[in-house]
Specification:
It is a single chain. With 340 residues, the protein is an alpha/beta fold. It is built from nine helices and 14 strands. The protein has helices at 18-32, 46-55, 62-89, 110-121, 133-146, 187-198, 217-223, 230-246, 307-316; strands spanning 36-37, 98-102, 124-130, 150-152, 155-156, 173-177, 206-212, 255-262, 267-274, 278-282, 287-291, 296-303, 319-326, 332-339. The strands form three sheets. Strands 2, 3, 4, 5, 6, 7, 13 and 14 form an eight-stranded mixed beta sheet that branches. A four-stranded mixed beta sheet has the order 1-12-9-8. The protein is globular and about 70 Å long. The model is unreliable at 1-10 (pLDDT under 50).
């Protein structure tokens, strides 16, 4: 149960910046719910982004390197299939493939596809779309340094909550939503995000969707309970962020990282579990929240897919699958789809 108390800090000046406002709203809403929860985007302050980058290199965290290996093995085929898909709806026409990405990519992963596009057609336009201006700046810098022939046109926008607006283009567009980022959203939200994108795509354009697959529970849980405690630090950093942004007084030593496979819902769930009864004060919200010993804050879902759940997600957002690439063990899948 959570309780809000009013207090003399009613006169606290309002927070001046829109990110802080969004943090305040999210924390107020999430911690007032039973069970408590917080949205996963809150992980990604500067420190959280650094910790996530470390996660992607951990021995237990197979998704990033598996997807990268799929791109390394099949990039030419992926680019070729995207171009051929467009040519089938535009007989006799040619035009350069441009690559759009939901989320700012990294040179090490997206760069493999950009390289393949440049090999094929001399140059390519790259349009990353990200909510975070700083993530975007970093991505663009890394991309332009590494890739010649790539023209970067970044756009700062929230593709989860807002409709997208993509510049016109005379040729195929391939939209990347990779890294199993879609896995953070429940099936209805996922269909909405892909549906918003779908409305900006033309016939013959494509979506390249990266999804982590259902596999052995031990393998899944190990990826979120790494030996070095980096995922634990990533999860707990959320509380540190709330302490800083909202002047809260979470004691990180009184919470424990938890990551468990929920087979019924096909997702890894991350939680922060309160190690004792405690009350946390959040001055910027003028509120206090009560935690019972053993109570958790649900901080992330990471959905895992099967061939048929990918097919039904695509279908629910009006896409038809074109082709799929996977690793030998089928740990990760990269699926090309086109508007139905
Ligand atoms: C960035 C959402 C794909 O779900 O595996 C990694 C985030 N959380 N370890 C994932 C994450 C804990 C990651 N995604």
């Amino acid at each position: 149960m959570s309780t809000s108390f009013s207090s003399p800090e009613l006169l606290t000046p309002p927070l001046a910046n829109p990110v802080q406002d969004a943090v305040a709203t999210a924390v107020r809403e999430g911690l007032s719910c039973t069970p408590k929860w917080l949205p996963a985007w809150l992980f990604y302050d500067a420190e959280g982004s650094r910790l996530f980058e470390r996660i992607t290199t951990l021995p237990e965290y197979y998704p990033t390197r598996t997807e990268r290996a799929i791109f390394a093995g099949y990039a030419d085929g992926i680019i070729d299939t995207a171009i051929r898909t467009w040519q089938q709806t535009h007989p006799g026409r040619s035009g350069r493939l441009r690559i759009l990405e939901l989320g700012a990519g990294t040179a090490t992963k997206t760069g493999i596809l950009l390289d393949a596009a440049v090999r094929r057609q001399g140059q390519t336009e790259y349009l990353p779309i990200d909510v975070s201006e700083s993530a975007m700046a970093e991505a663009c810098a890394s991309m332009e340094r590494v890739q010649s022939g790539v023209i970067v046109s970044p756009q700062v926008a929230n593709y989860v909550t807002d409709a997208l607006e993509i510049p016109q283009h005379d040729g195929p567009t391939m939209a990347l939503y990779i890294g199993s980022s879609i896995g953070n959203f429940d099936p209805e939200e996922a269909a909405t995000i892909l549906g918003n994108l779908r409305r900006q795509l033309q016939p013959g354009d494509t979506l390249l969707l990266g999804t982590d697959m259902v596999k052995d529970r031990r393998k899944l849980e190990a990826a979120y309970n790494d030996h070095d405690g980096v995922t634990e630090a990533f999860n707990l950093n959320l509380l540190r962020r709330i302490n800083r942004d909202l002047r809260a007084n979470f004691d990180l030593a009184r919470y424990r990282h938890m990551a468990v496979w929920n087979e019924e819902r096909s997702r890894i769930e991350m939680h922060l579990q309160s190690l004792r009864d405690q009350i946390v004060r959040i001055p910027a919200l003028n509120a206090s929240f009560q935690f019972a010993k053993g109570e958790t804050i649900h901080t992330e879902n990471s959905y895992k897919f099967t061939g048929s759940s990918i097919a039904s997600l695509l279908h629910s957002a009006s896409y038809a699958p074109v082709e799929q690439w996977t690793d030998e063990q089928r740990w990760f899948a990269v699926t090309l789809a086109t508007p139905e």
